[in-house]
Amino acid sequence: MSKLKVAVIVGSNRRESVNRKLAEALVKLIGDRVESRFIQIDDLPMYNHDLEHSRPETVARFTQEVVASDALLFVTPEHNRSIPAVLKNAIDWGSKPMDHNVWKGKVVAITGTSPSAIGTAVGQQHLRQILGILGSLVMGGEAYISFKPDLINEDGEIANEGTHAFLQAYLDAFLALAAKLGA
Length: 183
Fold this sequence. Notes:
By secondary structure, the chain is α/β, with parallel strands linked by helices. The protein has one domain (5-182): Flavodoxin domain (Rossmann fold), CATH 3.40.50. It has five helices and six strands. It has helices spanning 18-30, 57-67, 85-95, 121-133, 161-182, and strands at 5-10, 35-38, 71-75, 107-114, 137-138, 144-146. Strands 1, 2, 3, 4, 5 and 6 form a six-stranded parallel β-sheet that branches. Helix 1 (18-30) links the parallel strand 1 (5-10) and strand 2. The longest helix is centred in the C-terminal third of the chain and has 22 residues, at 161-182. The radius of gyration is 16 Å and the shape is globular.
């Protein structure tokens, strides 16, 4: 039996993104139980229907990587109480044309971090709504992480014991759901 393929999509194009750091720490928590891979989204051109008949290579690469995954882990910041434009653009490319919607049927978990007390709660809710409309099977439960300087240690691992345990349980539930629905 082959390993579950989990794609990680970081909704930030910032070089020193705390969400990328969180995503990398989450992949360490998952370990080698699954095949994990990051899918790049910051090289996609802005969605334009005029490009549908001759899709750019970056778009073809992106959609093929999503299709090849069994489940998706989104780790995203919140911009103006919504999702970042770079992430919305990727979602738009993946949803068009509707008969080739790459999000449909994908098991999805969503998290993110910011320095605020509620993390990226509102952006995550917006992403949950968008992906649900597109047919993704979005895992229940919430993972709003408040970013503090000591959240991730120098080895790239979750340093806070309580946050580590919470995120481990969240990822375990995600992988169990993905395995069950993928069977």
